[in-house]
Amino acid sequence: MSVISFAPTLLPVSNKLKSLLNQTLCDYLTQATQLNQQSADRYTFNFRDTSYNAENGGFRPVEIAINQQSSGEWNIEYITEFAYFGNYYPELERSMDFDISNNCWFTSYSGWLSLKTHQQDAKELYQLWEGNFLAYVDMDAYDQIKASC
Length: 149
Description:
DUF2787, DUF2787 domain-containing protein, seven-stranded antiparallel sheet, globular
């Protein structure tokens, strides 16, 4: 597998993010082939800064899921960023979520909103988030990048 084709979404997902997912998936499939594992029609990508914690902060973990349609195109199902919340016993929770497959988005301060009725706000926030995320990837902020099926 060299290049995967992504289906259009309501969010302006950049070619740079698509290329990152494509490369991460290709790396994973190369390893899976060496281990005689089958390919799948759904993959989850995890980007982690293993030093991230509630006291010192760091780069927030991100999870992205994709699935393949019968046409061969891939859908980005969701993009979720996690953060620690709470004072005495902080827990890692969803802080931002672009649930593309259900046409909704979430921030910890506003809750769930529709991508269709709040599309401009979602696009602006998504573009800001994606630009930062890709800059962090370029800085090698995530020391653990994994794909799984």
